[in-house]
From TrEMBL:
<keyword id="KW-0029">Amino-acid transport</keyword>
<dbReference type="GO" id="GO:0022857">
    <property type="term" value="F:transmembrane transporter activity"/>
</dbReference>
<keyword id="KW-0472">Membrane</keyword>
<keyword id="KW-1003">Cell membrane</keyword>
<keyword id="KW-1133">Transmembrane helix</keyword>
<dbReference type="GO" id="GO:0006865">
    <property type="term" value="P:amino acid transport"/>
</dbReference>
<feature type="domain" description="ABC transmembrane type-1">
    <location>
        <begin position="19"/>
        <end position="208"/>
    </location>
</feature>
<feature type="transmembrane region" description="Helical">
    <location>
        <begin position="90"/>
        <end position="107"/>
    </location>
</feature>
<dbReference type="Pfam" id="PF00528">
    <property type="entry name" value="BPD_transp_1"/>
</dbReference>
<dbReference type="InterPro" id="IPR043429">
    <property type="entry name" value="ArtM/GltK/GlnP/TcyL/YhdX-like"/>
</dbReference>
<feature type="transmembrane region" description="Helical">
    <location>
        <begin position="20"/>
        <end position="43"/>
    </location>
</feature>
<protein>
    <submittedName>
        <fullName>Glutamine ABC transporter permease</fullName>
    </submittedName>
</protein>
<dbReference type="InterPro" id="IPR010065">
    <property type="entry name" value="AA_ABC_transptr_permease_3TM"/>
</dbReference>
<keyword id="KW-0812">Transmembrane</keyword>
<keyword id="KW-0813">Transport</keyword>
<dbReference type="GO" id="GO:0043190">
    <property type="term" value="C:ATP-binding cassette (ABC) transporter complex"/>
</dbReference>
<dbReference type="InterPro" id="IPR035906">
    <property type="entry name" value="MetI-like_sf"/>
</dbReference>
Length: 216
């Protein structure tokens, strides 16, 4: 093991550049998948004829597919039908598709956990279905959904490493490049990678616990 060589300024800078790409992909994917997942979850909760059923089939199908397959599909299959995109956009699209399905189920379950009496009371007071969802049901459900949603975001951050299969220049890709220069760099490099992932994911876990404790 060569810690000195693996942790040279040039190598550390290279790893951090890859980590920045990882964070960019994760951030954009988190924002988009949260929006899409929330909308799909609400549609399924409302049980809109046909649309809700179609959404349910899509969610269950995607949830039972490996993310790696979806990444391959967005990067290698879509260009075959004329949809070409960069490695980063392909990775983001794959993550959004996969994570939206996961979040949609979390949102649907969270909304279902709210007592139906509150919906009936809100509607009887003159609120529309949309107003009831926005001002009464969704705020309460979101508080209950914080832990599973943050856990899903942590999983998403870790899942960005799968984009190494399409050579996205993220953290794992840069780690592999460094390891290819010298076999003695492998263990030190992977230790550094593990620490970077741990730092961000642990911060998210702490944030989740603080948000949860404020709701008790």
């Amino acid at each position: 093991m060569d810690f000195a060589g693996a942790y040279s300024p040039a190598h550390l800078k290279f790893l951090l550049q890859g980590f920045w790409i990882t964070l960019e992909v994760a951030f954009v994917s988190i924002v988009l998948s949260f929006i899409v997942g929330t909308v799909v979850g609400i549609v399924r909760y409302w049980r809109i004829p046909v649309l809700s059923h179609v959404m349910g089939v899509l969610v269950e199908t995607i949830r039972n597919l490996p993310l790696l397959l979806i990444i391959f599909f967005t990067y290698f299959a879509l260009p075959e039908v004329g949809i070409k995109m960069s490695k980063m956009n392909a990775a983001i699209l794959a993550l959004v598709i996969f994570e939206s399905a996961m979040l949609a189920e979390i949102v649907r379950s969270g909304l279902t956990s709210i007592d139906k009496g509150q919906t009936e009371a809100a509607r009887s007071s003159g609120l529309s279905a949309l107003q009831t969802m926005r001002f009464v049901i969704l705020p309460q459900a979101l508080r209950r959904m914080v832990p599973p949603i943050v856990s899903q975001f942590i999983s998403l951050l870790k899942d960005t490493s799968l984009a190494v299969v399409i050579a996205l220049p993220e953290l794992m890709n840069h780690a592999q490049i460094i390891n290819g220069r010298n076999v003695n760099y492998v263990i030190p490099t992977f230790i550094a990678v593990a620490l970077l992932y741990f730092a961000v994911n642990y911060a998210l876990s702490v944030l989740s616990r603080k948000l949860e404790s404020r709701q008790i």
